[in-house]
Please model this.
Amino acid sequence: MTTDEERIALLIDYENLAIGAREDLRMQFKLGPVADALAERGRVVVRRAYADWSYFDEDRRMLTRHHVELIEIPQRMDAIRKNAADIKMAVDAIELCFERDYITTFVICTGDSDFTPLVGKLRELNRRVIGVGLRASTSKLLPAACDEFLFYESLEGVNAGPTKKASGGRRSRGGAARVSRAPVTSAPEVEPEPEPEVEVDVETSDGSEEALARGDVSALARLITQTLAGLNRSATGPVLASTLKRALLRKDPTFSEADFGFRGFGELLKHLESRKVIETSEGPARGDPEVGFPEQGTGEESAFRLLVDTVADLESGGNGPPLSGLKDQLRKRDAEFSEKEFGFNGFLQFCKAAKARGLVSMEWDEQVDDYVLKVVDPVSGNNGQRRGRR
Model:
C-alpha cells in the first residue's frame, strides 16, 4: 500500500447540508460531487453521516450506495431539537484522531460555526482539515479555520437551481448563517415544489457517464482534464502519471484504459498528448512522467477566440451580454464547445480565465443581477468591440 497519499475521514452533518441544498439551491443533496473532489485529494477510509434518518429515507439509500456508515441520531418528540448530531460528530472526530493515527485528513461537511473549535483542535493535533458547506448557510468563521474549504455548489457535477440569498431568519448564534432546526412535530415530508427550469450542463449530466460506459474517448479526455485540473489545484508539486491514475481509480474503481482500446495508461497519455489535450515531461522515475496542460494549446486558443467573437457580436450600445445564456450562444456557433476539455470546472471559471488573459472584462450588473462581459480592446485596453476583428 502506498504511504504517500492522504488518508481521509469524512464526517457529514447531513441535516445541515440536505436542508441547505433544498432551501438554498432548490435541489437534493448528492454525495457524488463531494466524493469526486475528495478522490483527487486522497483515499477516504472512514465515511460517516449523522442525522435522524427517519426523515431522510431516499437520502439514506443514496448514501448507502456510497458506502457511508449512517449514524442514527434520534430526536425527542416533546422538546426542541438539540445539537445531538453535532456533539456526536465532534466526539467521533476526536476519538478517530487518537485511535486511528493513520488518518491524516478530516473532512467536516457542515456550515455550522459550532464546529469551529473542533476544526481548531484537529489542526492542533496535526491533522489537515477540509470543510464542505453551502455558501448561503456557512458561517464566515468556519472556512477561515480550515486548511481548505469547498463550497458544495462550486463542486464539479453540481447543477444547482437559482440560489437563495441568506436571510436574517436563518442565522445561528453570533450572527452566522446556518440551517435552522425546527421543533419536530411531524415528519418534514412535504409535497415537493415543482422543480425550476435550470440549464443543465450536458458534460456534468448522466450522459457523460453513459458516454464513458460506451468507451467514448472524448468523454474520457474530459474526465482526465477535470481530474488533472483538480490535482493541480490541490497538489504542491508536479502531478505524476501514477498520481493521476490513482485519482481516476478513486473516482471510478472500475476504470481501465483497456476499455477504451489502450494497452496501458502511458499509451493513453501519449494519445491525449498528440491531441494537445495534455503534455508530459520526464518525471523522477522512469515510466512515471509529469503530466500538465499545454502552455499554448491550439484548441484552447480557439475556444477563447470563440468567446471573444461571441461577446463582441452580442454587445449592443456599449452593453455586453450577461453570463447567463452565453454558453448557449457559443454552442450555437460550435455545437461541440466544452470548457471542460481544457480543465475548467465550469463556464464561469472559463470566462474568468479569459478575463485574466485580458480578453474580456467581467463586471457585476445589479440591473440584470448577473455578470456582464465586454470585449477588451487589445490596443487601448478599454472595453468595447475590437477593431479589425476577423
Observations:
- Residues 166-207, 384-390 have pLDDT under 50 and may be disordered.
